[in-house]
Amino acid sequence: MRKHLLTAAAVLALGAGTLGLGAVQARAAGELHIYNWGNYTNPELIKSFEKKYDVKVTLDDYDSNEMMLAKIKGGAAGYDIVVPSDYMVSVMAGEGLLEKTEPNQMANFKNINPKWIEVYWDKGRHYTVPWQWGTTAFTVDTAVYKGDVNTLKLELDPPPELKGRINMLNDMNEVINAGLRYLGYPRCNSNKEQLKELSDLLIKAKASWRTMDYATIEKLTSGDVDLSQNWNGAAMRARAQRPTLKYAYPKEGFTGWMDNVAVLKGAPNLENAKLFQNFVMDPENAALISNFARYANGIKGSEKFMDKDMVAAPEIIPPAGTQDPEFVPPCDQKVVDLYNRIWTNLKK
Amino acid sequence: MAAETASVPATSAPAETERLRLAKAAIRRGKLRTRWLLLSPALLTIVLVGLLPLSIILVYSFLEPGTYGGVRWVFSTDAYVQFLFERDLFEDTLTFNPAYLEIFWRSVELALLSTVGSLLIGFPTAYFIATRPPSRRNLWLFLITLPFWTNLLIRTFAMMLILRDEGVINIILMKLGLIDQPLVLIYTDGAVFLGLVYSYLPFMVLPIYAALEKLDFRLVEAAYDLYATRGKVLRHVILPVAKPGLVAGCILVFVPGLGAYITPELLGGGKSLMIGNMIAIQFGNSRNWPFGSAASLILMAIVLVALLVYVRYAGRRRGHG
């Protein structure tokens, strides 16, 4: 879900690749091929894993769950590890693409926060272990807009000072779900009257949007927009460069997501992949992941090893009284078809 | 009349010409074999990396979409129907839906505009290079190809840095006091147009230059000596020579412009779909591979028809001339 700037990802992947190679001993005992989101894997984590198990790690990246799924289904071979988001775990497990590695039997499983064990996408954790979790809402510049930020109205029916200064994610589900929440209608909706109303709302709101792009940090820090639909970790990274930015927790609701380390069926390096799953459940390693990409990780005791500014960040730790994020399961094909039409019509 | 024409060949058919004909045919067959042998690597490549994937796309376009991407092996023409009509999900009725046509039209329009833009800049540039002394031409050509040394993505990002609200142009204009609010340059159709022209300009310049290089400039001098006006020289001396280059250039800019993906996405701000982006999302979020395949084929068909019409038209003109 954290689709970052393509180049940033490429540059970082290159950096990570070089660092990784640097750490490889001449006689690495094995290999591990990781396919993860771009700009999302801490090179330190890879180095540390390579050192500990004498394994040569290669890292490739993707920028959306769907792109990753298409590649895997298209027969991209050789990968051991992928990091799908919650709904994509249930899709991939349902399609028989994931190996049942039983992480719940692994040594470090005791470190998982119990809240992340009985999850809808992998009840009891038979396939996957947590990588990071976060929320999708939006960031707004409080120097530009002085009022209460915690409402989706700012995205969908913006005040004059924000008109033409908004970036939305180029993401069908996130945009449509924001609209449905604003109207108070249920997710995975196939009610035609409600969807008509939603479509009208989005088309009207689009006139106030400047861009629809995944590169949210860059859009905000370059001054191109003053509000961007955003992920909380990206919001924190953007705030570091533009301190007046504030991450909103809309009262109408917002999306929660978790990315999970999964092993692909037929992984060439199955044992190393299992080692990696166990490895990322170690609090110190989980903290490495979070310190790099700036999202919470779901492993107990990792706070000790996390950067101080993260533990206190309002993007990571929501203010008291904030409602829980909503995890949205994948919708059925009929709903996806309807959403497609709304989306095409919105962007035609 | 019919009897008259039929009687002509009957009077002349000596045996010698018959043998000559056979010998010529044998030589022709030998030449043909060599030609096929020489062609075979290219043909093999075309079949393996061109026709084969294309036939997979063709097959996919007549199947049903799988629930999470991929295809179900059930024959269906829905992907093509969907291009023009939308099916009501509750009653099985079809209504005309111009959304995809509008997306196609926007892409065609922008590609045409970019072609015209590149032509207006590219032709004088090519003419300029072709009229330099031969020793200097290579330097100019080298400069034209220089941008290709950098990745398109990087060049497009550089354009963003120039065009954005806090970008080079706006900062300079504001520092000079000419404006006090940044101009809205980026995330507009104008920015996409600029990006496309910039990216594809060398494809226009190089073929035109190649054609103009063959022009004997003494002909231009002669035309002036014969009191031709500048317009007449351009129309009757330069353009006929440059024409193959112009056509090649226009095709080389129009076709990739039509399917451009990165430039509209980055400089256009992603609010409006272009054909390329529309096809890409069918394989992602929209989970509809058959429709993505069908749309690719429709795009190819449009390009092919345009090229065929041109070839026909150009061929006829030459026949009459």
Automatic annotation (TrEMBL), chain A:
Q: Which organism is it from?
A: Tistlia consotensis USBA 355
Keywords noted in UniProt = Periplasm, Signal, Transport
Please, which domain of life does this record's source organism belong to? Answer: Bacteria
User: What Pfam families does this protein map onto?
Assistant: SBP_bac_8
Listed under GO biological process in this entry are:
polyamine transport
Q: Which family does it belong to?
A: Belongs to the bacterial solute-binding protein PotD/PotF family.
What's the main place this protein lives?
A: periplasm
GO MF terms listed in the record are:
polyamine binding
Q: Quick one: signal sequence residues?
A: 1-28
What name goes with this protein? Putrescine-binding periplasmic protein
Report if keyword Nucleotide-binding is assigned. no
Automatic annotation (TrEMBL), chain B:
What cellular-component terms does GO give this entry?
plasma membrane
The record's listing under CDD domains reads: TM_PBP2
Which keywords appear in this protein's UniProt record, sorted alphabetically? Cell membrane, Membrane, Transmembrane, Transmembrane helix, Transport
Localization (cell) = Cell membrane
Q: Name one Pfam family in it.
A: BPD_transp_1
**Can you tell which superkingdom this protein's organism belongs to?**
Bacteria
> SUPFAM superfamilies per the record?
MetI-like
ABC transmembrane type-1 domain residues are 104-310
Q: Where are the transmembrane segments?
A: 36-63, 110-130, 139-163, 183-212, 233-262, 291-311
Tell me a GO biological process for this protein. transmembrane transport
Q: How does the UniProt record describe the way this protein sits in the membrane?
A: Multi-pass membrane protein
Tell me the PROSITE patterns matching this sequence: ABC_TM1
Family affiliation: Belongs to the binding-protein-dependent transport system permease family. CysTW subfamily.
The protein's name in its UniProt record: Spermidine/putrescine transport system permease protein
